[in-house]
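Sequence in, structure out. Go.
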Amino acid sequence: MKIIKPVRGASPKIPDSCYIAENATVVGEVEMGEECSVWFNAVIRGDVHYIKIGNKVNIQDGAVIHATYQKSPTTIGNNVSIGHNAIVHGCRVYDNVLIGMGSIIMDDCTIGSNSIIAAGAVVTKNTHVESGSVYAGIPARKVKEISEDLTKGEIDRIANNYVKYAGWFKE
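Output:
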């Protein structure tokens, strides 16, 4: 059974166009845009600071979105895919970003638009990921500029596919 509940007087704001899986958790000061999806066992915890999520964001199975108490909120732009078991914590993610499976984005990071964080990467505190780049490794470092093929073939394709997949579960 999904958990959607207020914490400290703040309730999640989730448009009807969003899909929340049956065992996902969304609590506290969370505001989601249109056509978002939160998948199985994913957790969005807006209990200690706000979390703002743009349009067409998918938060895949087992991912955790959180913030740091009174210090670092989490803001996620539009057209963002957050891969299975990723952790996004107290940071800012701009538009058109793919955060790979099992990656970790730590406090006070900025992930520039049109970027990819490779699977398993650890983006350490205060890192600024340049727009239009691919970061990988532990700690994550820039490995290359992003190509048009990666933008259209991966970032856009995955975000659009998750809107489609969510439709299957809403039927």
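Check: Residues 98 and 116 are 5 Å apart (CA to CA). The two ends are 18 Å apart (CA to CA).
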